[in-house]
Amino acid sequence: MHKVVTIAGSDTSGGAGILADVKVFQKHRLYPMTILTSIVTQTSSEWKHEVHPVDIIIIEKQMDTVFDGIGGIDAIKTGLLPTTETIECVARKLSVLVKAKKVKYIVIDPVMKCKGDEQSENDLLNTKQIVDAYIKYLLPLATVVTPNLFEAGQLAKTQTPTTVDDMKNAAKTIYEYGVKNVIIKGGGDSKKSVNLLYDGKNFDLIEGEYVDTKCTHGTGCVFSACITAQLANGKTNIQDAVRSAKEYVANALKKTSFKVNDHVGTMTHE
């Protein structure tokens, strides 16, 4: 059985983060392992997210357990990395694995905002230091990076893209950081959902079905986890992996989405 690792945060509500990744990996018949970087809680009244970082020493010990004690990892996905120290810590270990050819695929989901929260200049996940740490340490190791529109703008150090041309310009900039494949999640309208893939040579607009639902908590995590799963299972064509991921998310939203409470809805991956 192929082994995969998710390095991400725990979403207490169960819809996103490590829990979502594990559900996706199991659905794809993979053996998932986890490295916890943070615990995300939500206030009961307004459902505001609070991010509680895990101590760096504990993160290092988790990585030693998985990568040195077990090994044989087919693919790695990173999600919520809440501090610059976390990013540097994870990047140091992944760099060693890449140089030793102990991992084939690394998928970076550069989470910079919890869905439903208003962005502020003081947001823990969205600071110049966080963005610069991604650019300097982690993106050069990425097989694939999967920013949404907001994250693409942050990484490209420009305004949030609003057009396909904007997305292309952002993708070009992000690619120059050393990423092999850039996938910008462009959202959707009432007819279609559009993502942009750039491999340094060609742009590919990948369209999929748009599902009209408010139960979208965790869709970004699920999308990047699906791509990771495809790569781990040997399906290495990035275009095909993206299309499969989009199809998985759309089907999950149509068939298994439900409201967790008055604030949030997600999917169950049945």
Report on the architecture of this protein.
This protein is an alpha/beta fold and 270 residues long. Helix content is 39%, strand content 23%. The chain is built from 8 helices and 11 strands. It has a 9-stranded mixed β-sheet with strand order 3-2-1-4-5-6-7-8-9. Strands 10-11 form a two-stranded antiparallel sheet. A hairpin with a 4-residue loop joins β8 and β9. α3 packs parallel to α4.
What are the SSEs and their pairings?
Layout: E1 3-11, H1 17-27, E2 31-42, E3 49-53, H2 56-68, E4 75-78, H3 84-99, E5 105-108, H4 128-138, E6 144-145, H5 149-156, H6 164-175, E7 181-188, E8 192-198, E9 203-209, H7 219-232, H8 238-256, E10 258-259, E11 265-266
Helix pairs in contact: 1-7, 2-3, 3-4, 5-6, 7-8
Concise account of the structure shown:
The protein is of the alpha/beta class.
